[in-house]
Write a structure and sequence with these properties.
It contains nine helices and five strands, in the order E-H-E-H-E-H-E-H-E-H-H-H-H-H. By secondary structure, it is α/β, with parallel strands linked by helices. It has two domains: 3-130, Rossmann fold, CATH 3.40.50; 142-200, Arc Repressor Mutant, subunit A (Orthogonal Bundle), CATH 1.10.10. It has a five-stranded parallel beta sheet with strand order 2-1-3-4-5, with helices on both faces. The two termini are 41 Å apart.
Length: 207
């Protein structure tokens, strides 16, 4: 079971934890259970990805306080909040603190599962982007200073002749550097190269 499919369930009510564990397990999702927000935070070093379902009212630390703590440490995992009847005000506070969704008890199982899958999909997308950014930065370190100069010219949309003029080298030399850049960056096309430059910050979206 991939770690990005992991759902962290935080609730002080054992019956609710068991119920959510059964529901999520039946949907072929991996589940980890915690009976308090404090315990979850204590295990945070092992939490790499996934999403969180937390009750809003718990002893020691509430779901809202947990959200604020996760914001402080920039954890970034999507959080779905479960509230008791009449706790809409707390749910709104949780949404303001960054929760992606909230459900009042008793909640619709299918609606909750849909919210969990959506949260996991957003996490996977963020993880893929983070991994891609790391790979692009690693490839950039393989470029020589001159190759980086040529890369800057290419992603700025300059033709080889202009890049050659700017750098005081021949157009043929620019072609050689360009081929080296494409190979080292593993770019299949100029559009690939521009996308990588955007990902890495070499080229800003406003440029």
């Amino acid at each position: 079971m991939p770690s990005e499919g992991l759902v962290h369930v935080i609730d002080d009510d054992e019956a609710m934890r068991d119920s959510l564990s059964f529901l999520l397990g039946s949907a072929r999702l991996a589940v980890r259970l915690y009976d308090s927000a404090v315990l979850f935070l204590a295990a945070l070093a092992e939490v790499k990805s996934g999403c969180i379902i937390t009750d809003v009212r718990m002893p020691q630390m509430s779901g809202v306080d947990l959200l604020k703590r996760l914001n402080d440490i920039k954890m970034g995992l999507p959080v779905i909040v479960i509230t008791g009847h009449g706790d809409v005000q707390l749910a709104v506070e949780a949404m303001k603190a960054g929760a992606v969704d909230f459900f009042e008890k008793p909640f619709d199982d299918e609606a909750l599962l849909a919210a969990v899958r959506s949260a996991l999909a957003s996490t996977q997308q963020a993880d893929r982007h983070k991994a891609e950014t790391g790979e692009v930065h690693e490839r950039l370190t393989r470029l020589t200073n001159r190759e980086r100069d040529v890369l800057q010219g290419l992603v700025a949309g300059k033709p080889n002749k202009i890049i050659a003029f700017d750098l005081g080298i021949s157009p043929r030399t620019v072609e050689i550097y360009r081929a080296n850049v494409m190979t080292k960056m593993k770019a299949g096309s100029l559009s690939d190269l521009v996308r990588m430059a955007l990902v890495s910050g070499v080229l800003s979206h406003d440029a």
